[in-house]
Amino acid sequence: MLNKTLTMAVAIGVSVGAGSSAWSSALDDVMKKRGLTQKDLLAAAKTYTPTGGRDEYLAFSSGGQSGQVIVYGVPSMRILKYIGVFTPEPWQGYGFDDESKAVLAQGNINGKEIKFGDTHHPAFSETNGEYNGKFLFINDKANPRIAVIDLHDFETKQIVVNPHFNNEHGGAFVTPNTDYILEAAQYPAPYENEFVPLEQFNDRYRGGVTYWSFDKEKGRIDPSQSFTVEMPPYSQDLSDAGKFVSDGWSFTNSFCSERYVGGIEKGRPPYEAGCSQKDTDFLHVVNWKKAAELFKAGKGKPVNGMDVLSMDTMVENKAMFLIPEPKSPHGIDVSPDGKYMIVSGKLDSHAYVYSFDKMMTAHDAEKYEAHDPYGIPIVSLKDALHKQVAVGLGPLHTQYDSKPCTVFTSIYVDSQVTKWNYCTGKVLDKLSIHYNIGHLVAMEGDSASPDGKYLISLNKLAIDRFNPVGPLHPQNHQLIDISGDKMELLYDMPLPLGEPHYVVAIKADKLKPAIRYKSGWNSRTDTRSKFKARAGREKTVRTCDGDNCTVEVFGTVIRSHITPETIEAEVGDKVIVHLTNLERAEDETHGFAINGTNVNLSIEPGKTASATFIADIEGVFPYYCTEFCSALHLEMEGYLLVKPKGYKDVEGKIVDGTTYSKTDYDKQVGTNHATQDVIDSVVKFITERNYTDFAPVKELVDDAVAQLGFASKWQKDSEASAKSGDYQNATLQAGQWWQYQVKAADIGLRAKTYLEEHGAVVVK
Ligand code: CUK
Ligand code: CUA
User: Which segments of 563-694 does DSSP mark as H helices, in order?
Assistant: First the structure.
C-alpha cells in the first residue's frame, strides 16, 4: 500500500513537472505569473509559515453572532479552532454530549434554552496585569452572560447569567489579578423582572456594572461573591480596569446620557437623534476595591439573588464619580502603566487622554463641577484631561505599542488606523484599511507590557476584498506590521463566522494546552467521570421501573472499534451511551454518531462522553466513528437495534457471509509474518538511535508497543482456534492480529520519519 502511494505521488509529480503551466523554480518567474511586486513578496515572507511551522502569537477572536470564539495564529493568520461557547458546536460535540449540554444549560434564561450568543469582548486571565495563559472570558451582548473557557483544553466550562441586566456590552474585562470580571449593562432596564412603563425610565430603569468574582483555585466564577454597582440609566458601554497606580479603580464609559427614549412610531424623533444631542457623555469611575469592601460589609441589597450596591451607597463612600467625555464615546483603554485612560468619541474627531493623577487630585479634594441628576459628583473634563488629540473621524478603540507613549487608534469613519503619541499628542502615521475598522489588536496590546510587532485591524466591512460569495460577506481581519516607524499592511484574512468585535492575542509559549485527558475524564466539569469504562470491562445494562426501561451502555472506543458493537433496546427505552476513549496517542480522537437521534460525540484521548436519547421508533440504526482515525476507520461501526415491545429473539445464529479454510488461515498468517518483519526492521531503526531524547517519539513508541500487545493476544487466540481446527475463527482472529500489526507499523513509521527529520543519531 505504501509503495502504491509512493508510485502515485511520483506519477503526479512527473505530470505536473511536464505540464506547460508549471511553476518555474525562479522566483522572478513566479512573481511575473502571479503579478506580485517586491513589496508583496516581502509581506508574504513576513507571514508565510512553512509546513510544520508555528506561530509566535495566538489570537482569540470573538465569534460575534455565532456565539463562539475563533482561534488563529499570528502572523500566519491560519485558523486553528472554533471554540463552542454559547452555541452548540458539532465538531467538538459541544451541545451534543450530556456533559456539555449541562454547561449550555447554565446559560438558560428564565428556564428557557437560549440558542445563540453575540460574543464581543474576550479577555485573558491576568497576574499583575500580564496575561497568564490560564483562562479566557467572553461576554454575550444579546443575553447578558459571561463564559469561562479553560485554556488547558480550550473548552467552555461555565456560563453565568447576569441577574440584573437585560442586555450588556461592556464585558468581559478583568482586574489585574483576575479578582473580578467586569460586565457593564448597555440598554437600561429595570433590575426587577417585571414590567415598568417607559414613562418611568428615569426613576426605575437602571444601568450598572457587575463585578463577577473569580475563584482562581477552582477556575470558576463564584456568583455568591459577586455584586453589581447600580448606575444611572445611561447606556454604559465598554470598561477597563486600572492597573498599578490606578489599580483598584475601573472605568466605564456611556452614551445616551441624555436618557432619551425614542418612539418613532408615536411621532417621537428616533433614538439616534435623541441619544446624540449633548456634546458630552459620562465616564464612570468606580473604586471597585472599596465597592468589594462595602459588599463584604453587607452594604448591598439583594435583587434577584445577587447584591446591588446603590448609587447612594457608592457616592456616600466616595467610591464613584463621573467625568464628561466626548460625544458618544466608545472605547476606553488604560495605559500599560495605569497612568492614563484613552477614550474616543464616535462622533468626535479627537481621542481624549485622561490623567489618573489629575482626576484623583480633583476627586480627593472634592472639586466637582456639578452632580448628575442621581447625585453622582462630576469632575470637570478640564480637571481630568491630559491631552486632546485630533486623530481622525470616528475614533473607536486604542491599543498600546511596546514603544513608550505610542498607541494605535481605529478610525471607523475614515477607515484608517492612526498611530500617535499620547504623551506629546503628536500624530505619527496613518494607514488606510479596508473597510470601516472597529476594534484593533496589538500583540498583548492591553496588558501591562505590550509586545508591539503586529497589529490586526478588525474591519466591519470587506466589500470588494475577496471573491464574492453572495450578499453576506465575510469579515476582514487585516494584519499590519508595526515594528517600524511606518505601519505596513501585510495580509487580508476573511473570517466567515459572525461579526467578531474584539480579539486578544497572547504569546503562544504562555499556553500549555493538554495533549490528552486523564483516563475517563469528564472534560466539561474537569473531574473523573462516573461513567468511565476500562478495556475488557465494558457492559450494557437494561433496567426497568414498571414500563419505563433504560438501556445504559458503559463502552469504549479505540482504533478501530467501538465496544459494544451491538446495542439492543425496545422501542420507548431511554438509551444512555457512555463512551471512554482508551487512546493515549496524540490526536486519536474518535467520534460517535447515530442516525436520526442527534447523537454526535467527540471523544478525545482519555475523555468519557455521554449521550442520552429515547429510542422512540423501532428499527435498525447503524452507528459509527465520525473521525477518520485509522485505516479501518470505516469499519469502526455497530448497530443500535430497536425492537418492538416484548419482541422474542429469532432462533439461530449469525451466518457469516464468507467462510474460511486452512488455506485462508495460512495465507493470513503468512502476511502477518511478513508484516512482522517490516515492524522488526522499523523497531531496529528506532532503537538503534537516541529516540528517547525525542518526547513525541517516545509517546509513539509507547503507543506502538500497546498495539503490538493487542496483536500478540489475537495471535494466541488465532493459534488456539487453528489448533482446534476452527479455521473460520482462526482466520478472523489472525485478521484482527494483523490489524493491530498495521496500526503498530503505521505508528512506527511515523516515529521513524520524525527521527529522520530531526537528526537522531545512532547510539548502538
Ligand atoms: S464593540 Cu464592536 S467595534 Cu462590541 Cu467593542 Cu467597538
Ligand atoms: Cu475512530 Cu474512526
Answer: 662-687
Sheet strands (E) in 559-687: 561-563, 566-570, 574-581, 590-594, 599-603, 608-614, 619-624, 637-643
Cα pseudo-dihedral 707, 710, 712, 715, rounded to 10: -120
Answer whether 519's CB lies under 8 Å from 582's CB: yes
411 lines ligand 1 (CB under 6 A): no
Each residue's pLDDT tens digit, 278-330 = 888 999 999 999 999 999 999 999 999 999 999 999 999 999 999 999 888 88
CA distances from 570 to 30, 563, 610 (A): 65, 20, 20
CB 113 within 8 A of CB 103: no
3-state SS string for 1-23: CHHHHHHHHHHHHHHHHHCCCCC
Please report the atom of ligand 1 found closest to the CA of residue 397: 6
Cβ atoms of 214 and 222 within 8 Å: the answer is: yes
Could you tell me which of 157, 168, 161 has the C-alpha nearest to residue 135?
Answer: 157
Q: How far does residue 501's CA lie from ligand 1's centre (Å)?
A: 5
Residue type, 110: N
Low-confidence winner among 233-247, 259-273, 631-645 (lowest mean pLDDT) = 259-273
CA pair distance 408, 417, nearest whole angstrom: 6
- In ligand 1, the atom with minimum distance to the C-alpha of 460 is 3
pLDDT digits (tens, 9 = 90+) for 8-44: 433 444 344 444 567 777 899 999 999 999 999 999 9
Q: Which ligand is nearest to the CA of 436?
A: 1
Contact between residue 153 and residue 81 where contact means Cβ atoms under 8 Å apart: no
Q: Helix, strand or coil for residue 548?
A: strand
| Residue 411 · residue 395 · CB < 8 Å | yes
Ligand nearest to the CA of 439: 1
Q: How far is the CA of 138 from the centre of ligand 1 (A)?
A: 13
The residue contributing the CA closest to ligand 1 atom 3 is 438
**C-alpha closest to that of 623 among 577, 581, 572, 658:** 577
How far is it, in rounded angstroms, from Cα 678 to Cα 700? Answer: 17
pTM score, two decimals?
A: 0.91
Nearest CA to ligand 1 atom 2: 501
Share of the chain above pLDDT 90, in %: 84
| Percent helix, percent strand, percent coil in the chain, to nearest 5 | 25, 35, 40
Residues flanking ligand 2, CB < 6 Å: 590, 625, 627-629, 633, 636
Residues listed for the chain: 764
Higher model confidence: residue 637 or residue 272? Answer: 637
Q: How far is residue 168's CA from residue 171's CA, in Å, rounded to a whole number?
A: 7
Helix (H) or strand (E) segment spanning residue 259: none
Rounded to whole angstroms, the Cα distance separating 296 from 299 reads 7
Among the bound ligands, name the one nearest to the CA of residue 632.
Answer: 2
pLDDT of residue 8: 42
Q: What CA–CA distance (Å, rounded) separates 410 from 408?
A: 7
> Which 3 state secondary structure label does DSSP give 639?
strand
Return the exposure string of 459-488: e unless at least 16 CB atoms fall within 10 Å of the residue's CB, then b: bbebeebeeeeeeebbbbbbbbbbeeeebe
pLDDT at 617: 96
Q: 213-247 burial by CB neighbour count: b if 16+ within 10 A, else e?
A: bbeeeebbbebebbbbbbbbbbbbbbbbbbbbebb
Query: Helix, strand, or coil here: 546?
Result: coil
Proportion of the chain above pLDDT 70, given as a percent: 97
Q: DSSP H helical segments within 442-583, as ranges?
A: none
Query: pLDDT value at position 4?
Result: 44
